[in-house]
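Example: ATP-binding cassette transporter.
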Amino acid sequence: MPGGAVLETQSELPAATFSTQANALLRKNLVFQRRRWKTSLLLVLFPGLLCVFLFTMQKIIDSENNKASNKCGCACVPRNDSSGACDTVCGVQYSTDRQALTCSVPSPPEVPAMLQVPDARYRAVNFEGKFPGFPDPRCRDSGSCDFVFLYTGGNRSLADATTSMLLPIPSPSCLLSCRYVMFFFSRLPSISLHCLGGQGTSRKVPFSYFLEDALTKNFSILLRDCTNAMGIPCVPTDMVWRDSKQLIEEDIYDGYRRANPESTNTRIHFHHVAYNFLDTSSQNLDLVVYYNSSYRGNVASNANSVLLRVARSMNIAASSFLKMLLGPSTQLPLAFMKEMPKQESKLLINFTLLLGPLFYMWVVQLLFPVILVSLVYEKERRLRMMMKMHGLGDGPYWFINYVYFLAFSILYILFLMIFGAAIGLDFFRQNSYSIQFVFYFVYMNLQIAMAFLGTALFSHALTATVCGYLYVFGSGLLGSFLMENYIEDTNISRKIIFATEILPGFALHRGLYEFSQYALLGSSAGEKGMEWRDLADHDNGLRQVLAIMLVEWIIFLVLAQYLDKVVASGCGLKRRPLFFLERFFQKSATVASDTDDISRPDVANERAIVETLRTASNSSFAIICDDLKKIYAGKDGNPDNYAVRSLSLAIRRGECFGMLGPNGAGKTTSINMMIGFLTPSSGKAFVAGLDISKDMDKIYTVMGVCPQHDLLWGSLTGREHLLFYGRLKNLKGAALDSAVETSLKNVNLFYDGVGDRRAGTYSGGMKRRLSVAISLIGHSKAVYMDEPSTGLDPASRRTLWNAIKKAKQDRAIILTTHSMEEAEALCDRVGIFVKGQLQCIGNTRELKSRYGGTYVFTVTGDPSKEQEVGNLVREWSSGAKQVYNLSGTQKFEIPKDDVKIARVFREVGEWKERLGIQAWGLTDTTLEDVFIKVATN
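Written out as structure tokens, the predicted fold is:
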């Protein structure tokens, strides 16, 4: 619209720059932070308090572990002489299970190298015919199931020849010696050359330095034929060929079912050993051993015990290969296994490292719900929208809040690291401080970006609080019970781990896990933990995690900015999903006009003025609405709802325009379209020459708003509110201080120190006056006020009216009100809305003349004389109309052209006593009468 160019006067200031807006918001945030310094201090010190707690718990645990009852046990052993004296001897045999952990073991026991064999009732069977070659499932009932070795390879004949030597038949003399010496773990070659099987037991062995009863009692010898075992416990064993390793994996892994091992009828398929000879040839043994240690309720549940049995499976395969090549007499004995000697030690439990990443993950993520709720609170209370409507752009808002939360996060993390290192927590002291800081710094940036992203998804602070803490605790628990298993299981694909690390909580957990592991190894070895050079280690996942978090940080920031514009975020118009392409596909929405202005010449004249302004430039008009419409689509077969119908309106600078109408008439909808809360269905609107569909951000810099409900910070004073919004209007220095004091005086908040009290302590009327002062501060060209005097006492209302009258001299003001007195006192023109349409427009005198045209005669007297009073009125005018009658009180409307006021006064005086008139009055039409007449027609 050409008429959009508005000339600046000397009293007007240019729009506040990015730095000015950022400075205003930063000052406000610092003041707000100063008000709640105790809460902030406790939050920052919280990691330190946790570190002190951990330090105290570690000291208590160390003190408990150093008690004499936890040291290596000792006994007084009598001497072999007649003195009766005894010698104090210490060691494992004199200690309890707990004391034995600290004892020296100079000569660990020799443990036979056995192969784990399931009990007969749990051995693999041909269940449902899916596992050919295995025993019939009915063998479980009698406990006679054979144990099966599976094998495959690239050369079957060579594999058959090798496995034929896997379990050689022992000589009778060897079997006879076994009956007497196996119970003592004999290392006779004749025994060690055969495969001993340790069968299942329910006992779990915590440390491999102690022999297990199962190794001495539940042993067997594996033979293909147990007929001539000569009384030695024997397990019949078969060799079954499979055509591929996939079939073997199916038998070992897919056949395993987690079920109740006590029931012999359950679908349990346990298999443990299989061989893949791959490209084995006469010159090369190329072997893969498959081993399933999932057997429930037995020694296999302990890792050390399982390792004792793996060696035997490798030995018998290598031994059979040599026998196949060199002859049956070839021997490859594996007599026993034993641990390395151990010195006496102390019982040490590093409490902080045992807590692991889960605890530190919760501590680090504690700021996430705090930041999220802070941002959502401003959105829910519409404080951000209030700031935006007074000129705060999205750029300064995001920048200052980001820097503010980042500084707070860095301070939080520094306190955590300093306190943790100061009190000696290995998690912090063992690892490089620079690596830790970089990791935490990157994650804090990602966490802030994630909070900004969450702000676009939540509308209520309470919901954001619940979801924020659920995310913190949920991601921590999942990371502890899921992520760690993925990392420690070498069979899990690295791609799966990478996919899980995409979730920021899991990425944090992975980094903390690496710190914990390096600190644990460094602490036990007396060395440093993680250094920068360790990032090159293939098994170190920190480098990958840092890369993921950096990429996600950028993505989350971009996505947060995008969703902030396309989601109903409470901070302005919701834009289309492809708004960034609108400049290439600009379309103007058109809706057919359904108005008839002929019967309303004042409305038609206003429309003609607007049409003239389309082509003629005129800087005196601050607000122009050109055929503005808002239509809500009907649902469930209902017709469309026309909230605003063809609003054409032109308001000059220096004019106060009042919008009157019943509830639901479209007043608030019209204002919401002008201030950027709603998108018009069609039509255009210009504020200070700027199009609301294109230049809303610029319009905010020249606009002031007093919303219907007070949007204030309870922690800020009235003066601080005005200083903040004054800076957004580019007021500085002495001009700012003068404007603030003038505003406080105009709304009667300057005296008695009221302006320096927190807004949270204000009464409803004081908050209302402060909201009006905020809307008027600065040099706004357009001001919107929604029922500004609601809740004010008469004296305060008069003070507020005077302030508005002074302010309208150089700006356009639109206000809505239900007070006809307020409209007459403030408004140069008023418009009455009915059913979304402007029914009339003009100053109050014109409207009363145009829509009134009558006198109102009110009389109170003897009820029995009512008819005579009515006859007297009709003598004055045949067009007189009775509009009210109750208990002797009557009200008549008399056309002004039919009666003279002098006659009314003369004849009422003459007939007063005869008609029993007690009181009477003759008034002109009021604005309220006009309003009622227009609204009800």
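The two ends are 36 Å apart (CA to CA).
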